[in-house]
Amino acid sequence: MKIGVIGAATVGWTLATKLADKGHSVQIANSRGVDSLVPRVADAGVPLQAASLEEALNNDLVLLAVPWTKVREVLGQDVDWDGRIIVDATNIFTSYAPDFQIEDLGNDSGSEIVARLAPTARVVKAFNTLPIEKMFAPLPAKELKRVLFVAGDDARAVQDVMSIVEDVGLAPVAIGSLAVAGRQMELQGPFSGLELFRIGREISS
Questions:
Q1: Going from the N-terminus, what domains does the chain have, and what CATH number goes with each?
Q2: What's the predicted TM-score (pTM) here?
């Protein structure tokens, strides 16, 4: 699959390198431009490509891994999504350590905002409920896989995202729509920070 990753901090970089290592064609972009990524890409050890924002946004699947405060800027680009997939991996922090602040969206949700900003895209929420270090931490037993929750309104898009979740060694579990499950996956929701493991078809905490 042709994948564009927007954001080259810990989440974006980790997912980009893991997906490239599994044979996907992955372009990664950040706000500082291609030249800032070239040395990192050269040392990545996987066939990852540094790209401009415009190039990365025009892949079959775009993984959004930028700070929440940059989402409107990124999705304000003139892009014809034409049913392509956006994976929303963001969390609604407005500031980070040492002063963590969360945006109060009232009756709205981050993924629904993303969907409105890109109305011709198919938006799927994933890769946001666990810190990336925990997401890929060593497993307590070799027969286990760590669960990753997925939410979306388009069944085919959800299945495509579940496939890349499996590619990076996680066990995807689809839990519903953006309006219901997507909200439950947000910061302070019941699925945020919840770590579960799958044993075959069983799930354990």
A1: 2-204 (3.40.50.720)
A2: 0.93
